[in-house]
Write a structure and sequence with these properties.
10 helices; 8-stranded mixed sheet; 9-stranded mixed sheet; alpha+beta
Length: 418
């Protein structure tokens, strides 16, 4: 058995997004004195999914009762508001409207009401006149208001996690892309692009858009592939048209919520996203193509099964991506006053969507374990909202895995838990 001194750290986290940083934060809180290192390939935290979303603190209303998404989003939303308040991070609990604009959507809207009540959420049903009390320029047949939805600056949350982890003795290394993983009986050795080797008792894979690749580097078959979907946004030139958050009724067949309107913590209004296939893991525009990554996506059988099953939906999303007029028409269903001139391009994001071999879009958070390893294999939205409870769960599993190497919690842990 290796001695403590032979390890560079006890837990090594790959990925400096909000889930990886929350995991490191939870470890330093649960077991102070545990040596934690985070490796992030970019030159700062939260450069991908965390820093490129619309900043919504989701209520959890969309998610199946009993699922990890439902449990962690409901709990995580309340915790995120408290965390932001405690640390002076910009946030607001605005509530949101989910609006039905066609009669065919009314049964799904009613089902969401029932689901919201199952989750214990503050849900109110609205008629057309009541919609305009909250959003004077929004039109619909019916709506529900979810009072616990909010917005915050998730990039600042990630930055606070960095400060807390560093203050507790943890190490955050930027520009440290992982190129090789060697799993041994005593733990793992990870090599980065600059040739540095880091030895740890336990590896936590929170690599987001690259989590399946990292799992394969570790010698594990994740049973899924990340198929990247780009979400394209516009900014509303007339933000006064929208007071808060306005969403369409989602299609339960897809994990995407449809084009919606989000007044952010800074007062600006984002419109979107749509969801189109990205031609690279970090393909934030159509011209960004990585042939090797694209070939890997196309070689996965699930990709073609998605295409065959949902080609009509996908064609509509691509049409709205290529045609601003079509995108505007989608927005006008909720906000009739919007014109093409009101929509200004805004930075896009890419969703790391796990897809199974049979073409199933993984709908829940997916965490799997292997010797000396914990893999987070599906953590798209609402992972930012749920990052505090997700981080605690991943930390719990990692610390249990560390015990298998002979590690014991430092003495300072006694009586301290989250």
């Amino acid at each position: 058995m290796m001695t403590r001194a032979a390890y560079d750290c006890d837990v090594l986290v790959i990925g400096g997004g909000i889930v990886g940083l929350s995991t490191a934060y939870a470890i330093t809180r649960t077991a102070p004195g545990t040596r934690v290192t985070v490796l992030e390939k970019e030159w700062g935290p939260a450069r991908h999914q965390t820093g490129r979303n619309s900043g919504v603190i989701h209520s959890g209303i969309y998610y199946r009762p009993g699922s990890l998404k439902a449990r962690y989003a409901v709990r995580g939303a309340a915790e995120m508001v408290d965390f932001c308040a405690e640390h002076g991070i910009a946030h607001a609990v605005t509530g949101k409207l989910i609006v039905a604009t066609e009669r065919s959507e009314l049964p799904r809207l009613h089902a969401l009401v029932q689901r919201g009540r199952q989750h214990g959420l503050p849900v109110r049903e609205l008629g057309p006149a009541q919609i305009t009390e909250y959003e004077p320029r929004v039109r619909g047949l019916a709506a529900i208001r979810v009072g616990s939805t909010g917005v915050c600056d998730f990039g600042a949350v990630a930055g606070r996690f960095v400060a807390e982890v560093s203050g507790a003795g943890g190490v955050i290394r930027y520009g440290a892309e992982v190129t090789a993983i060697d799993r041994r009986p005593w733990g793992v050795a990870v090599r980065t692009a600059d040739g540095t080797v880091v030895r740890a008792r336990v590896l936590v894979n929170c690599a987001g858009l690259h989590c399946d690749r990292v799992a394969r580097l570790a010698g594990d078959d994740p049973g899924m592939r990340i198929v990247p979907f780009r979400g394209e946004y516009y900014e509303l030139a007339r933000p006064e048209l929208v007071r808060g958050l306005v969403y369409p009724v989602p299609d339960p067949a897809f994990p995407f919520l449809g084009v919606h309107l989000t007044r952010g913590h800074d007062g600006g209004v984002h419109v979107g996203p749509n969801a189109v296939p990205a031609l690279a893991r970090e393909g934030y525009g159509w011209p960004v193509v990585h042939p090797r990554e694209l070939a890997d996506t196309l070689a996965w059988p699930g990709t073609w099964r998605i295409a065959r099953r949902h080609w009509r939906y996908g064609a509509g999303e691509v049409h709205r991506s290529l045609s601003k007029h079509a995108f505007t028409q989608a927005v006008r269903r909720l906000l009739p006053e919007v014109t093409e001139a009101d929509l200004r391009p805004a930075p896009a994001g890419v969703r790391a969507q796990a897809v199974l071999r049979d073409g199933t879009l993984v709908d829940d958070f997916l965490i799997r374990e292997a010797p000396h390893t914990v893999h987070v294999l599906n953590a798209p939205s609402p992972a930012a909202t749920a990052s505090l409870p997700i981080g605690r769960e991943v930390a719990r599993r990692a610390l249990l895995r560390a015990r298998e190497t002979g590690w014991r919690p430092p003495a300072v842990e006694s009586g301290h838990c989250v």
